[in-house]
Write a structure and sequence with these properties.
Number of helices: 9
Structural class: alpha+beta
Strand content: 25-35%
Helix content: 25-40%
Largest sheet: 8 strands, mixed
Distance between the termini: 25 Å
Order of helices and strands: EHEEHEEHEHEEHEEEEHEEEEEHEEHEH
Length: 375
C-alpha cells in the first residue's frame, strides 16, 4: 500500500493553499480532486475580490483570518507577480438609516483591525463618479481584485516544487483512522486505489460534509448542515463608470452583501451575486435564468440609476457552501481538529465561502497550527 504524509481532499484555492503550506515541512503531500483540474467549483466562480475584513463579528474566524490573509495575499502576489489591483471599494448609503449603518460598520471594522476606512460625503462620491447615486459612503482602500486562476496555479506550482502531487479525476471514497494515521480508498477514473496517510485534510467545499460522513469515527454531531447558495453574475458591456468596486449597504432580508459592482483584471464590469438557496445535487446547476435581469436592474438602479438595460447580460454563476441557512444569523468558518471530533491528524473544513479566497493563506497557517498542537 502506498504511503503519503498528507492527503488534501479538494483542489480549490483553500485546499491548494493548505497543500502549499504543508509541503514545506512534509515531503509527500497528495492533493486530490474529482474534477479534471483544480479550482473548478467555488474557487473559479466568484467575484475575485480581496476583502478587507470589514463586515464580520469581532474575533470570529472570518474576521481574523480575512484580515491576516489579506496582508499575506498581497505580499504573496507581489513576490510572485500574480496579477492583482488594490482598487479600493466604496460602500454606499442612500438615506440616514443606511448612513447610521455605515457609522456602525466603520467601528466594527476598526475592532477587526481595519482602521483605514474613510468617510465619503455626497460631494466626494460625485467627484468619484457622476453616475453614482448615494448620500454618503465608506472608502476601503485595502480592498482589491485578483486573478484567482493565476493565484491557484502559483499555489499548485509551489506545492509541486516541494514534492507534492496533484491527482485529478480522483474521488474520495472512505477513510478509517489507524494508529499510524489513515487508510484511504480512492476512485481514480473507475479504478480503486488504497493508500496510507499520516494526515487527512477535508477541504472539499460543496461536498465537505459528504466526505466527513465517509470518515470512520466522525459522528453526525460533528458534521454540520451545509446549504448550497447560488449566486448569479451579469456583465456590463462598454466602459465602466466606476474605477472602484461599489457595494450597496446590505439589505436586512438577504444573507449576502447585495448585488454589487466589481471589475475583473481585464476591466470588465460585472454585477452580482444575488443569493438563491438551492437543493444539493451531485451535479451543480450553473445555468442563469434570464428572468433574473429585472431583479438585477432594480437593485443596481438604486446606486447606478443611469444603467443601460441593453448592456446588461447574463455572465456566470457560482455556488457557495454556507453553514448559514436562509433565515439564520451569522455562521463562522468551521475548521475542526481533534478537539472537536477526537481523531488525531484529521482537519475538517466546513462552510468555507467568502472570504475564503482572501483568507486562504491564513486558513492554511491555521490548519498547520492545529496539526502541530497534536504532536
Amino acid at each position: 500500500m502506498e504511503k503519503v504524509d498528507a492527503v488534501v481532499v479538494g483542489a480549490g484555492v483553500v485546499g491548494l493553499a493548505i497543500a502549499a503550506r504543508l509541503s514545506c515541512k512534509l515531503s509527500n503531500v497528495l492533493i486530490i480532486d474529482k474534477h479534471q483540474g483544480f479550482g473548478e467549483e467555488t474557487s473559479s466562480r466568484n467575484s475575485e475580490v480581496i476583502h478587507a475584513g470589514i463586515y464580520y463579528p469581532e474575533q470570529s474566524l472570518k474576521a481574523n483570518l480575512c484580515f491576516e490573509g489579506k496582508l499575506a495575499l498581497y505580499e504573496f502576489c507581489q513576490k510572485r507577480t500574480i496579477p492583482f489591483k488594490p482598487l479600493g471599494k466604496l460602500i454606499v448609503a442612500q438615506n440616514a438609516d443606511q448612513q447610521a449603518y455605515l457609522a456602525d460598520l466603520q467601528l466594527r471594522a476598526r475592532n477587526n483591525g481595519v482602521g483605514d476606512l474613510m468617510w465619503q460625503s455626497h460631494r466626494d462620491l460625485h467627484r468619484f463618479s457622476s453616475e453614482l447615486k448615494a448620500s454618503a459612503g465608506l472608502l476601503s482602500p485595502s480592498t482589491g481584485i485578483i486573478d484567482s486562476h493565476s493565484y491557484m496555479q502559483s499555489l499548485l506550482a509551489e506545492a509541486e516544487s516541494n514534492g507534492a502531487s496533484f491527482a485529478a479525476n480522483t474521488q474520495f471514497r472512505w477513510a478509517e483512522p489507524t494508529d499510524k494515521g489513515f487508510n484511504l480508498s480512492l476512485d481514480i477514473d473507475g479504478d480503486v486505489m488504497s493508500l496510507q496517510s499520516r494526515y487527512l485534510i477535508n477541504s472539499a467545499g460543496l461536498y465537505s460534509t459528504d466526505v466527513a460522513q465517509n470518515i470512520d469515527g466522525v459522528g453526525n454531531g460533528c458534521i454540520p448542515e451545509l446549504h448550497w447558495c447560488k449566486g448569479h453574475y451579469f456583465s456590463y458591456s462598454g466602459k465602466s463608470p466606476f474605477s472602484r468596486l461599489v457595494y450597496p449597504v446590505p439589505e436586512t432580508n438577504i444573507t449576502g452583501l447585495g448585488i454589487h459592482a466589481t471589475v475583473d483584471m481585464g476591466g470588465q464590469l460585472k454585477f452580482g451575486p444575488d443569493t438563491q438557496y438551492i437543493s444539493r445535487s451531485t451535479i451543480p446547476d450553473y445555468s442563469i435564468d434570464s428572468n433574473l435581469k429585472p431583479k438585477f436592474l432594480e437593485a443596481i438602479r438604486r446606486y447606478f440609476p443611469g444603467i443601460d438595460a441593453n448592456k446588461l447580460q447574463p455572465s456566470y454563476s457560482g455556488i457557495r457552501p454556507k453553514l448559514q441557512g436562509p433565515k439564520d444569523s451569522f455562521e463562522d468558518f468551521r475548521i475542526d481538529g481533534s478537539k472537536v471530533h477526537g481523531i488525531e491528524g484529521l482537519i475538517n473544513l466546513f462552510g468555507i465561502e467568502s472570504p475564503g479566497l482572501t483568507a486562504s493563506l491564513a486558513i492554511a497557517k491555521h490548519v498547520e497550527a492545529l496539526l502541530a498542537e497534536e504532536k
